Amino acid sequence: MRVVVAAIRRMWLKAFLMPILALINLMTKSKLRIPVKDRWGFRIHLSFILSKEGFLQKMEKLVIKTYIMRRIAPRVDIRGARNRLIINIDEDENFIDAYNDLADKLRKYPEFFKGSQMKAIVKGKEMNNEERNMIRELLETRFGFNTLFLNPVEQKDDQLIKFVRTTIRSGQVIQTPGHVVILGDVNDGSEIKAGGNILIMGRTNGLLHAGYPNKNDSFIAAFRLESLQIRIGNIISRAPDRKRYRADIPEIAYVKDDKIFIEPLNQKSKML
To answer: Quick one: the chain helix, strand, coil %, rounded to 5?
Structure first.
């Protein structure tokens, strides 16, 4: 029996650990010592003598590769579509570098762009008025484009989601302009106030106000909706009697006909 167990251990070491150690050795150029002890069961102690020079070389290559890939990526991407020229400027690029890159690309084909009466749509990078004027002067004065700038898309406050990974205790107030997800319970004496929806992955006894101050199309959902009072927009309601509450069914509260309705949260829910 011992012979079989020892053979299995050797096979496991050869088939599983050795390839991993070889890979580590290859990546870090390190020397590996593998003392193997077989007391009180099978134990493997791995000690690595890392080559500092090898590790630094790998890091240096990684930095160089990242830099090269960053420089390969175009500062300015130009595409034509239906009498429009779409110019996408890398949002992280230095403006002067991006401006020079755009000018160089346009100068390569002046006969193609000159007098074409095309509309140039510039997007990607956020620019101040001075930078926009420089781009506009380049496109309109030198090449005759009608220039339109598109601002970077900004996420609206009511689209933001705030995650709270703890239980909300008495006296605590959580307020956010967007949606809120509570990964815990909401205790008595606490308050959750959100401009959007409220989702509670636990039991709730505190005051809940979704759609603050007057957004009635929001909702409140919880594993155990036991709050004495809930608000959605400018509508106020009381939750079901705790004594009759069925704790095994998550519920959702929403507004319909200026009233708050509370129903089981499942695939048949009207809100889904």
So the answer is: 30, 30, 40
Phi, psi (5° rounding) for residue 195?
A: -75, -20
Six token digits for residue 229: 């009072």
Give the whole-angstrom CA distance, residue 239 versus residue 14. 63
User: Residue 54 and residue 122: Cα distance in Å, rounded?
Assistant: 45
Give the CA dihedral 124, 129, 135, 137, nearest 10 degrees: 160
Token readout for 232 is 């959605």
What is the band of 115 on the pLDDT scale with cuts at 50, 70, 90? low
Give residue 51's pLDDT: 39
For 71, phi and psi rounded to 5 degrees?
-80, -25
| 188 close to 169: Cβ distance less than 8 angstroms | no
Residue, of 259 and 149, whose pLDDT is higher: 259
For 12-26, write each residue's pLDDT tens digit: 555 444 444 444 444
DSSP of 74-117: -SEEEEE-SSEEEEEE-TTS-HHHHHHHHHHHHHHSHHHHTT--
- pTM of this structure: 0.45
